[in-house]
Design brief:
By secondary structure, the chain is of the alpha+beta class. The protein folds into 2 domains: 40 residues, YefM-like domain (YefM-like fold, 3-Layer(aba) Sandwich); 37 residues. Helix content is 61%, strand content 13%. The protein has 4 helices and 3 strands. A 3-stranded mixed sheet has the order 1-2-3. A hairpin with a 2-residue loop joins β2 and β3. The longest helix is centred in the middle third of the chain and has 32 residues. The termini are far apart.
Length: 108
């Protein structure tokens, strides 16, 4: 759905016409509420919000499946490392960086 100029509403106008805006949204419109000339909030139908949340959950699941697929491909290709060895490597990389950023204590 595209947003037109009449779907962009200043905050003060939205506050005074909330009932009318709610009816328009229930009829299928989406409203962008602005504050100080910049987008601030969106007013959408609750059912549509549920759909957006469902789509976002599905997107997250697809990303997780893709990560798992890539991980399995790494295993098949032999690109694996023992977990303890990997953690030790990470800790070794962090040690010089952490010691370089530690503050020097004054003695006096």
């Amino acid at each position: 759905m595209s947003i037109s100029a009449r779907d962009v509403v200043p905050f003060t106008q939205a506050r005074s016409n909330l009932s009318e805006l709610a009816d328009q949204v229930k009829a299928g419109a989406e409203k962008i509420i602005t504050k100080n000339g910049e987008s601030y909030e969106a007013l959408i139908d609750a059912d549509r919000l549920d759909d957006y949340h469902r789509l976002e959950r599905e997107r997250i699941h697809l990303l997780l499946i893709d990560d798992a697929r890539r991980g399995l491909e790494d295993i098949v290709a032999g690109h694996t490392q023992d977990a303890d060895q990997a953690l030790a490597t990470i800790q070794k990389r962090r040690s010089p960086a952490q010691s370089a950023t530690k503050p020097v204590k004054s003695r006096g």
